[in-house]
């Protein structure tokens, strides 16, 4: 492998869920509780999709696989066993590869976690969002707080020792006391990783067209301050804006995203970011696959394949793209990596860094670009200062 190429991950998208949540802007399509899924056809399409993308891997081994959705836990363990076998036949995998599956507590059949663990999945990410039944109902979730606790217990019984809980805050009518109560319930389950992020009203969602009443800004600040302090006190260190982990349990897959690594994307609507050969050397390209599941499945018989679009990242946009990712990390990046990833001399950045430090948005680190706690809160303002095209 060339030293100029970053690490490589694989993202697999499973687009179906029981029903679409009103806040969700991901490529997900409701099928109902009894909806039959085209497992065999989708597996065949995913393998064909991966096969077509193999030249883009350029001989690199996979450091991580992340299976997201939708609700990937609607698919059987056998589906993932065959998929992961097909991946391993086509791409080398790191000896300590991290393989994550997203799961929702309301879609689990008893014993399914044990099957996932047997086929090689070694990390689970549970979409809990809240342990309060009233909040879950307001979010349109199909599980209860008891379902979430039962799912964690079953995951532990199945042998999973690397567990992430997804938890939201800033929920409709949520108080700091309710938000902290959710965190306490999560901490009582001893997760290795916690993703704790604020509910936002995204375009093209039901909540955007019919917004619920959300907490006032002062309440949101209180929730964040109290929550960050509580998680750190519990031994979950913040390493990204909304990610907390115990020592050695940071998400390798997400770290590869945030460090501007490469990733293949297979499945309906999956995105990829890749370093590809072009005139004058390597350039970075984003790719995306056909979005609608039915159209994606039809692409197996289409000479155009599964690719819906591709676009190189223009050289002048690379510094901002790089900064948008790495400045989410609490420890930032070495200043030297700026040139390596953007093709721009670090010297050209120094004046902008000084201005950001004067505003208190960057740490006083000579050889690192690292957001201060204030900079993490006001990341857009920090990015606007650093962006060389601004």
UniProtKB/TrEMBL annotation:
A GO BP entry: porphyrin-containing compound biosynthetic process
Principal subcellular localization: cytoplasm
Radical SAM core domain span: 2-237
Entry keyword Cytoplasm: yes
InterPro entries xrefs: Coproporphyrinogen-III_oxidase, Elp3/MiaA/NifB-like_rSAM, HemN_C, HemW-like, rSAM, rSAM_sf
Pfam families referenced in this protein's UniProt entry, alphabetically: HemN_C, Radical_SAM
Cellular component per GO, a single term: cytoplasm
PROSITE patterns: RADICAL_SAM
Superkingdom classification of source: Bacteria
Location(s) in or outside the cell: Cytoplasm
Transmembrane region(s): none
Keywords: 4Fe-4S, Chaperone, Cytoplasm, Heme, Iron, Iron-sulfur, Metal-binding, S-adenosyl-L-methionine
UniProt-recorded Gene Ontology molecular function terms: 4 iron, 4 sulfur cluster binding; coproporphyrinogen oxidase activity; metal ion binding
Similarity comment: Belongs to the anaerobic coproporphyrinogen-III oxidase family. HemW subfamily.
Function in brief: Probably acts as a heme chaperone, transferring heme to an unknown acceptor. Binds one molecule of heme per monomer, possibly covalently. Binds 1 [4Fe-4S] cluster. The cluster is coordinated with 3 cysteines and an exchangeable S-adenosyl-L-methionine.
Protein name, entry field: Heme chaperone HemW
Originating organism: Halomonas beimenensis
């Amino acid at each position: 492998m060339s030293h100029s190429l970053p690490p490589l991950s694989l993202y697999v998208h499973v687009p179906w869920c029981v029903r679409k949540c009103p806040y969700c802007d991901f490529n997900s399509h409701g099928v109902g509780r009894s909806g039959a899924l085209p497992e065999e056809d989708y597996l065949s399409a995913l393998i064909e999709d991966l096969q077509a993308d193999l030249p883009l891997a350029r001989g690199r081994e996979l450091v991580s696989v992340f299976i997201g959705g939708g609700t990937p836990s609607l698919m059987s363990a056998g589906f993932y066993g065959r998929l992961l076998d097909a991946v391993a036949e086509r791409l080398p995998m790191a000896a300590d590869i991290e393989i994550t599956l997203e799961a929702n507590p309301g879609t689990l059949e008893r014993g399914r976690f044990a099957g996932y663990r047997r086929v090689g999945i070694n990390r689970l990410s549970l979409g809990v969002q809240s342990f309060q039944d009233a909040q879950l109902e307001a979010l349109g979730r199909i599980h209860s707080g008891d379902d979430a606790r039962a799912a964690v217990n079953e995951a532990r019984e199945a042998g999973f020792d690397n567990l992430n809980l997804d938890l939201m805050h800033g929920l409709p009518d949520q108080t700091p006391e309710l938000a902290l109560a959710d965190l306490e319930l999560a901490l009582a389950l001893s997760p290795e990783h916690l993703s704790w992020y604020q509910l936002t009203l995204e375009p093209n969602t039901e909540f955007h067209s019919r917004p619920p009443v959300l907490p006032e800004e002062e309440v949101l600040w209180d929730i964040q301050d109290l929550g960050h302090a509580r998680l750190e006190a519990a031994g979950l260190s913040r390493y990204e804006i909304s990610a907390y982990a115990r020592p050695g349990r940071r998400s390798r897959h997400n770290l590869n995203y945030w460090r501007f690594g490469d990733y293949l994307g297979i499945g309906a609507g999956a995105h990829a970011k890749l370093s590809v050969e072009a005139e004058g050397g390597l350039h970075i390209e984003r790719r995306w696959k056909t979005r609608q599941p039915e159209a994606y499945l039809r692409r197996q018989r289409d000479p155009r394949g599964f690719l819906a679009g591709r676009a190189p990242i223009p050289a002048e946009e690379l510094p901002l793209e790089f900064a948008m990712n790495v400045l989410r990390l609490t420890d930032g990046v070495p200043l030297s990596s700026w040139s390596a990833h953007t093709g721009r001399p670090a010297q050209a950045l120094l004046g902008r860094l000084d201005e950001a430090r004067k505003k208190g948005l960057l740490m006083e680190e000579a050889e690192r670009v690292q957001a201060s706690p204030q900079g993490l809160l006001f990341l857009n303002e920090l990015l606007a200062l650093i962006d060389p095209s601004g």
